[in-house]
Amino acid sequence: MTALLTAVVAVLVFGTVVLIHELGHFFAARRCGIRVEEFSIGFGPALWSREKNGTRYSIRLFPLGGYNAMEGEEPEEAEQEPSSGSQPKAPAYDGTAPLLPARVDGRRFHETSPWQRFFVIAAGALMNFALGFVILLVLTGSSEAVTSKVIYDFVGDNPKSQATGLQAGDEILAVNGHYCFTAEDVMYELQRTSDYTASFKVLRDGTVTTVPHVQFDTRTLEDGTTTMVLDFRVYGIEKTPRTVVHGAVRYFCYYSRVILRGFIDLFTGRVGINELSGPVGVVSAVSEAVQYGWRDVLSLAAVITVNLGIFNLLPIPGLDGFKLIFLAAEGVTHREVPARVQAALNAAGMFLLLALMVMVTLQDVAKYIL
């Protein structure tokens, strides 16, 4: 029963995140007057397909992504001139479009302005961010209180952080030079310290004060791992519409920065590829979240959708972020990067990304088999 529930929840989470992302591209394309030939959730053979108002809607076998097939989107396709008589001539576009038109004929992707194409490509990630914020808003609004960064009291006998500079009533602003949005942000920064000593910037009695060399006790777990002991607690904030929205914004900023710094750690070598998780690892995380309850499932969904949005905006060949660089350059210089160059770089990037996904998936499988 747990396996079935995990499968259902995993499909719902993945499907919703992908659907929202692709709807962003879809509605942005329609808004700019671009005809979408196919809107698909998943890859591979079609499980269900239906054509309506000039667009084919499909659900395909492998729910690991999706796509909007827009005429003239691929660089090679954009270079080709339509053969005479093969397509009826499109009506001239007058620069206006209804907000969500049911059908738009005649505008190919490359015929729009660079900034319109920029908007269409970026809209997928923006929708992921919107979904993440809505989920965090639900989580914050359903919690007993909104967590603050103000120290309430200290725990244990002679807590070391209090002895080395922190005081009750301090509002923690930054740890080791990194601004903290939430109490979880404070914990994240402390976990990244190498010697269990950190520099704090706090608001104390209305004055911003730096407290260097704050130390923490440690404890050793059964497996021999040494961890830091967090020896203080923070205040909760009474829930009001304002504090809930503000809390959701802070959590969104926290999640976004943690995810972005995770990518930076990967590119700089701070963490290895062996610490990455693919679809198998994510399904395992969904399984654990299901056991804890709906709040953990929603929290994981927020991480996944924000992660997808940030990942797609990375300037890596094959991703939306790389396309945005070309479009921004074209918008500024009014000169398009040669289509063959774009196609070659994107093809190479997609190959490397697919190879990485296969490697990470095999790595995940090996973890659970061995």
Short précis:
The protein has 370 residues and is an alpha+beta fold.
Layout of strands and helices, then pairs:
Layout (H helix, E strand, L loop, with lengths): L1 H30 L4 E17 L2 E16 L4 H5 L34 H29 L3 E9 L5 H4 L7 E5 L2 E2 L3 H9 L5 E8 L2 E9 L2 E3 L5 E3 L3 E6 L3 H28 L10 H14 L1 H20 L6 H14 L5 H31 L1
Antiparallel strand pairs: 1-2, 3-10, 4-5, 4-6, 6-7, 8-9
Structure description:
The protein is an alpha+beta fold and 370 residues long. The protein has 2 domains: 2-82 and 94-141 and 283-369, no CATH class; 145-238, PDZ domain (Pdz3 Domain). It contains 10 helices and 10 strands. It has helices spanning 2-31, 75-79, 114-142, 160-163, 183-191, 241-268, 279-292, 294-313, 320-333, 339-369, and strands spanning 36-52, 55-70, 146-154, 171-175, 178-179, 197-204, 207-215, 218-220, 226-228, 232-237. The protein has a 4-stranded antiparallel β-sheet. The radius of gyration is 25 Å and the shape is globular.
